[in-house]
Target: Citrate lyase subunit beta
Amino acid sequence: MLYCPGDEREMMEKAVDSGADVVIFDLEDAVAPAARDEARRAVRETIEALENPAQSISVRINPLDRDGSKDVDAVIRDAETLPDSVVLPKVESSEMVAALTDHLADVGAESVDVIPLIETAAGLVAAEEIAGAPGVVAVAYGDQDYTADVGATVTDEKTESLYARQRVVAAAGAAGVDALDTVYTDIDDADGLREQTETVIAFGFDGKLAIHPAQVDIINEAFTPDPEEIEWAEKVIEGQEQASETETAVFTVGGQMIDPPLVDRARTILDRVDAAENH
Model:
């Protein structure tokens, strides 16, 4: 998911060709308060000018108690074309999600999904109820705000974020929605981005936020299974189908005993292959 400043029309137009699965037109951190009215107009006009974009289009609004409602009214109310989702920052309860979904319904945008950002200690403690709230399709973790909120010392190894990341993944998994990892702020550090992305994939994250188009290919490549993984997954699914025909609960692939959790892992690998092929 690629963030793009909502007051930069040319950047927004180019972002849809970046290869990202989702482009987020940002009205929060990326826009100065004095430029917010113009940014709202720019975002609305850009969305309405897009012709069947391959990417999903999202808008990050401000918190509802800080102009978020104005963002929704300006960008979504009576719009000819709606975004696919709204990213809501600083979410700390399911009631905050409900307030947004109610507002979306009021402006005739019930079809717009919600992606809450968990960026505070209170949000992390409420992660399960937030992920399970109606209208939510994914939850995203915001590391910079979270570590500042709890007063953590930020390290290169990111051990201070380990618990927060794993709790977000668990909450998303329990709710059956996607978990999205935080941005990597050093745009020039491709190796660091690749390493961090591989780490959060191992944690169970389904996607990652990006702040520059140059990061998109690195993230996509990391999420794309390698040939050995694909071959293993295909053999597992083939073995599972044969086992079902013979009513066998457990079978082996290459000497490895395969049970239902490994079948689920194989399906996840093949789903990621399909997603990569559809870029």
